[in-house]
Amino acid sequence: MTINDPSYLIHKKWMSQAIKLAEIAGNAGDVPVGAVIVDKNNNLISQAANRKERDRDPTAHAEIIAIRNASRALQTRHLQECTLYVTLEPCAMCTGAIIQARIGLLVYGADDPKTGTIRTVANLPDSAASNHKLSVIAGIMESPCRQQLQSWFAGIRNW
User: Fold this and answer.
1) Catalytic residue among 63, 81, 89, 142
2) Is the pTM here over 0.90, yes or no?
3) Which of 20, 27, 32, 56 is most buried, taking the most CB atoms under 10 A from its CB?
4) What are the residues facing 107 on neighbouring strands?
5) Is residue 127 a contact partner of residue 135, using CB atoms and an 8 Å limit?
6) For the purposes of burial, counting CB atoms within 10 Å of the CB of 4, is it exposed (0-12), middle (13-18) or buried (19 or more)?
7) Which pLDDT tens digit goes with each residue over 9-29?
8) C-alpha 146: how far from its chain's center?
């Protein structure tokens, strides 16, 4: 996929939206992660930012909220014709939800060397525990996604 490839430009558009949502989360005191779900025609279905701290809910990850909202909007738990964009590689909980929702395509920005379960720490989609073949594109706008997280964590360490 080249930088001028039409599919790359679409991925970049939606990842840019996820980055904006992540900024909202970071400014509100949550780890800056944003998620966007679009349908097969690239229509926005759902979007969310991390809300763990604001909601005092350990399950309020951007991906989980976006999946819940998309399932409600589409009146189905199967989102196989949807693409999920998220700024950070999903954790085990989110990967489980992505597999259960049968997301058609996962596009994420930065690898997570601590809790990433798509390919970095573990590979749940390709494991025997998965009942769904998940297509994945990693590294879309990786640098701004990683920089956003690093800046946020540096800021709270210096606080």
Assistant:
1) 63
2) yes
3) 32
4) 85, 137
5) no
6) exposed
7) 999 999 999 999 999 999 999
8) 13
Q: If pLDDT is split at 50, 70 and 90, which confidence band does 65 have? A: very high
Which residues are CB-contacts of 109 (< 8 A; sequence separation ≥ 6)? Answer: 15, 18, 19, 86, 87, 88, 139, 140, 141, 142, 144, 145, 146
Question: Strands 83-88 and 135-138: what pairing?
Answer: unpaired
Average pLDDT, the chain: 95
- Identity at 94, one-letter amino acid code: C
Q: At 146, which amino acid appears?
A: R
If you average pLDDT over residues 82-111, what whole number do you get? 98
Structure tokens at 155: 């800021």
pLDDT at 69 over 90: yes
Which alpha helices (H) appear in the chain, and where do they start and end? 6-27, 52-55, 62-74, 92-101, 142-157
What is the rounded distance in angstroms from the CA atom of residue 103 to the CA atom of residue 81? Answer: 7
Please give the average per-residue pLDDT across 125-150, as a whole number. Answer: 95
Radius of gyration, alpha carbons of the chain: 15
Contact 139, 147 (CB under 8 A): no
